[in-house]
Design a protein that fits this description.
The chain has 5 helices and 2 strands; from the N terminus they run H-H-H-H-E-E-H. The protein is an all-alpha fold. It has a domain of about 55 residues. The protein is rod-shaped, with a radius of gyration of 42 Å. About 5% of the residues are buried.
């Protein structure tokens, strides 16, 4: 605080025409800047002089605070996105894990065919053979109605 007081005295000597009431936010920003820049008098005095001459519209501390708030918001958004992504990954991994299914066993393992070869109603063909489809008559019970 002593360094801020010295800077404030130098500022008052350079700019005596500025009223005391508007200097309260400047004093707050000086306290912030001294904590931020660890009491570097040259940097704080330079920022203050540049601000008072009108080259800066806002004091640097407000820009720094805006940037810090923006960084915190981005960190929160990244954290939320990573949590959502991890939840989606766990759901996808649960879908990919196959549950055990009860298999139906037909015939014997040593037999070449398992069950009867029932003719298909649709024609089928392979490279050299053609199996015509079989016609299955409709049920007689539905025909009589």
């Amino acid at each position: 605080l002593l360094s801020i007081f010295l800077i404030f005295r130098v500022f008052w000597a350079l700019f005596p025409h500025i009223a005391l009431f508007p200097l309260i936010p400047i004093l707050e920003s000086l306290i912030f800047l001294s904590a931020r820049w660890q009491g570097s008098l040259i940097l704080i005095a330079a920022v203050l002089i540049v601000f008072c001459r009108g080259y800066l519209k806002h004091l640097v501390h407000s820009e720094i605070l805006k940037n810090e708030i923006y960084r915190e918001e981005i960190k929160l958004k990244i954290k939320d996105a990573s949590e959502k992504d991890s939840l989606l990954q766990t759901k996808e991994s649960e879908r990919l894990v196959a549950e055990p299914v009860q298999t139906k066993i037909k015939g014997h393992a040593s037999s070449p065919s398992y069950g009867k070869n029932e003719p298909s109603p649709d024609p089928t063909s392979t490279a050299k053979t053609f199996h015509p489809g079989s016609w299955i008559p409709p049920d007689s019970s539905s025909h009589n109605k």
